[in-house]
Amino acid sequence: MYYIGIDLGTSAVKLLLVDENGGICNEVTREYPLEFPKSGWSQQAPEDWKKAVLEGIPALLSGFDASQVAGIGCGGQMHGLVVLDDLDQVIRPAILWNDGRTAVEVDYLNNEVGKEKLSALTANIAFAGFTAPKLLWMRKNEPENFAKIAKIMLPKDYINYVLTGVHCCDYSDASGMLLLDVEHKRWSAEMLDICGVKPEQMPKLFESYEVVGTVRPELARSLGLSDHVQVVAGAGDNAAAAVGTGVVGEGGCNISLGTSGTLFISSKRFGVDPNNALHAFAHADGGWHLMGCMLSAASCNKWLCDDILKTTDYAAEQKDITAERLGRNHVYFLPYLMGERSPINDTNARGTFIGMTMDTTRSDLVQAVLEGVAFAIRDSFEVARSLGLDIPSSKLCGGGSRSPLWRTIFANVLGIPLELPKTEQGPGYGGAMLAMVGCGLFESVQAAADALVEVASVVEPDLELTARYEARYRQYRTIYPALKPVFARFL
Asked: I need a labelling partner for 450 at 20 to 30 A (CA). Which of 176, 438, 440, 476 fits?
């Protein structure tokens, strides 16, 4: 049998065809546009996701027996607000996870409703990317559209709705809406009331591996599928990626180096960071996790190379950054191109180079960007350590993990071994694994991870280089506090 994993990303959807042994038989990518209508705003047309998925599935199955597809699981970009009217039409473009328009609403939630109350209701405080502030923004700024809302969902839930006609969401993705009572896995009636939302507008909740329905018969026929293909609830992209790298159960860690960057720590027990610098979310394995999320990770390197240096040859830009230069760069970079979430929660923060002199080179800037992203993940890593969590090693995934140089920088900035999974396909692979569980191939997500996830290689830290990076990180830590009031004055 085959299983389809869908990774609904920010710039493209990636579809995987996976066999029952976990082998990837085919993959297809379809890109779609991203809109920035105003500074700090970020949105997309859900119809573009739909078109990409429905065109991608037949291409994925070309040359294969589509009747052997048993299940579909989707991992998708989190937090995005998708709203439909009573005719199931999209009301407005989806407001995405990296959108910063909700500073006023975040301030209201955190300072008037209050962080303590929010944390008690949802296990989290408000961040600009979360869904609840977007609903408040829409209610205030687009009241006509807000009044039309019949269904509220997240990006991957829209794809599930297209496939099955079921209005659903899983606990991991719902955790990032600031509308879920994460500990008890139910919608918070009080938070819905604060946002002016009715319970009937919210999707039905499922565990990530639970079957929500089958592909609608007429759609199955058009896609070449049988009419019994089961669709599971799926997961937010970070939880799905963690499943795909085997980070399930108690005490696992995964670092995802994609458009955004995350530090993901799995647990069988519910727990909250008392300072709310890390998110406390449900996990796709039925447990929970703590997560630190930075908004701009590999996208920082893409921005510098594509838009500033005018090249897409990332490897060439890194070739002059030799081993003896690591830990000795005099240039620093704050990777806050879209503001920042964990752990500073500052929508005013901006990307910044500091330390440049007349002898600063092109490769110094590239190195500063790679190191700045690693230092920012280290910020969340330090919060986890302050909570008494022991992180002796971590998995590493995401597009940025394909750079040997960046892997070396990360291992030594964090001072821990980094394990690279043999199959590094992120949320799509995790989605396929969840479909396997839902279809009964494995009895649990843990069993699927134990059977399918293998480590291909390990990047070990070097004691001398780790010491150099420790000194550089201490200097890096002084930059943002000094610039924080400057950022606030500039905006």
From this structure: 176
